[in-house]
Amino acid sequence: MLAAIVVFLLFAITDSSANHLWLKQTGVAAWTTQAAFFGIVAVPVGLLMIGGEFDLSAGVMTGVTAIVMALLVGKWHVNTWIAILITIAFATAIGLINGYIVVLTKLPSFIVTLATFFILRGASTGGVLLLNSGSTQITVTTAHPAGLSSAKSIFGSSFFSSGSLPSGYSTAILWFIAVTIVGTWVLSRTTFGNWIFAAGGDQNAARNVGVPVNRTKVLLFVSTALAAALVGIISFTQASSAVSEQGVGYEFFYIIAAVVGGCLLTGGYGSAIGAALGACIIGMAFEGVIYAGWDSSWDFAFLGVILFLAVVVNTLIYRRALKARR
Amino acid sequence: MSEPPTNTKETTAMSGENPESAPAVHTGRSAATSPTTTDGPAPALEVRSVSKYFGSVNALEDVSLDVHAGQVTCVLGDNGAGKSTLIKILSGVHTPDSGEMLFDGDPVTFAGPREARAHGIATVFQDLATVPLMSVWRNFFLGNEPTRGRGPLQRMDIKQAQRVMREEMAKMGIDVRDPNQTVGTLSGGERQAVAIARAVYFGAKVLILDEPTSALGVRQSGIVLKYVIQARELGRAVIFITHNPHHAYPVGDRFVLLKRGRMLGSYAKSDTSIAKLTSLMAGGAELEELSHELQRAVDPSVKEVAKELAAEVKTPG
Q1: B37-48 pLDDT, tens per residue?
Q2: Size of interface A-B (CB pairs under 8 A)
Q3: CB-based contact (8 Å) between A9 and chain B?
Q4: Model confidence band, residue B277 (pLDDT cutoffs 50, 70, 90)
Q5: What is the predicted pLDDT for the residue at A279?
Q6: Which of A51, A162, A230, B137 is within CB 3.0–4.6 Å of B165 for a Cys-Cys bond?
Q7: How far is B142 from chain A (nearest CA, A)?
């Protein structure tokens, strides 16, 4: 929380855009939209990390699901709502595959989902080229595809557009808020949330008292895949097109958001709201650098510094939590 | 058949104070004979000459024991004596290759740990009992969370969980001021107490404690022994597994000695002493001569320690 405020103020001070737009609607809309696209996936990725696992395929999944949508709607003229259902089913399947491979083989999820990442990346790029006669971009060509406008109003639209902000705020922000609320509720209030902490904290102890650790982990993998699918659906309905390799590299932003937000890399500790704030910090970093008039190549250096500081602070908190007495 | 399962509610009458009321002594070799428990209620859990082989290794051979409600049965043995195999059989992880188990007088076989738990057999594993990074109340109800509301609004009843946890911990003599305190900040003895209190609260009739004191210092061990007595006073049948006769003797009502998978013997408290248990564990018959020497050297201090511990654990609260 404190870190988010510090970053916000930093860019408020360094804002060198004409009319100081950072503090105005334009700036807020820009970074909240950016934050939403990261945060929708970062929250479930954070929950998965608390549950003791990683998902490196979440980034590419946002692109692959957008491509699935684009192929279904743009190329095969499927009703958009049916395409959404198919995409959700596809994401669920990928999540189940990731989850079951991890719990059944007991291999590190880092490696398993890295493999899924590359398989999906290669298959989607190759598949798009094959099906789309050599082009990497799939665009909706029909004038009014069935269901696209209604789906767009829910997923890929905007709100509060005004004279000073013609494009409004992205609907993705509302989804981000919803995902954060659901994530917080599940983690802190429900039985399943208790199991997530236990699965990541000490899975042997959890099993000893009858927690279904494997089921918990598989469901978490499904939730990250579904969240990625939500982003894929949002980005497709917004742009009415999809490009292969979209979303590649985002998997690390999700993990950075979760870690900056206080999720422990080793599992067992963290919060959904923390991951959401982490996503806000990344959103601010990406947009703030532009508003500050710096070369945007420095984005990553800035992110790296934030990540490093966050990990140092988190480790100190973790040690204190474990060794407060004796 | 054995006697019909008697109600074991009036257990406090036969808890530790008068070990004379314990069933007759039978030593290991003859344990396979008829399970004539003399007077008193039927054992909560009875193990009749179970054996377990791993390949050609006899992990456990012809081991029998009776576990009564309101009593502490200590299973003593050095490393490799078969203690962990016995625990795994009792808690349903392994099924015995021969022999049988009777729960409340009825023969039972457990397909897995879940089934053993469903019968009321709870095992508190040494280091694998609690999750350090989770709060005390979350740990207490882990796997058995109380809920309110229904459908998507179903949630943990946190207030109720915290209240019950504080009450149950108070019964163990621990005042948890902040229920959100993580278990990792508790001392080793208190962590065991959380696990014991949890097992007792969730209706464990038989409580298996796997080396609860082995990783702890003297003071913390004393605290855990106090909780062992508390669990006994609450009418539970406690199986206390340890390699330390100094910890076992003050709290135990019956002592079963294991060595290389076989029973060295089963003794009521009145029939044995720390020195005897120590010497039996140290090597049994073949080392008897050496143990006599040891006994002479160690006896006075050992007795002193035993008295102190016994006094300490008997003081209430």
Answers
A1: 444 567 888 888
A2: 83
A3: no
A4: confident
A5: 93
A6: B137
A7: 7
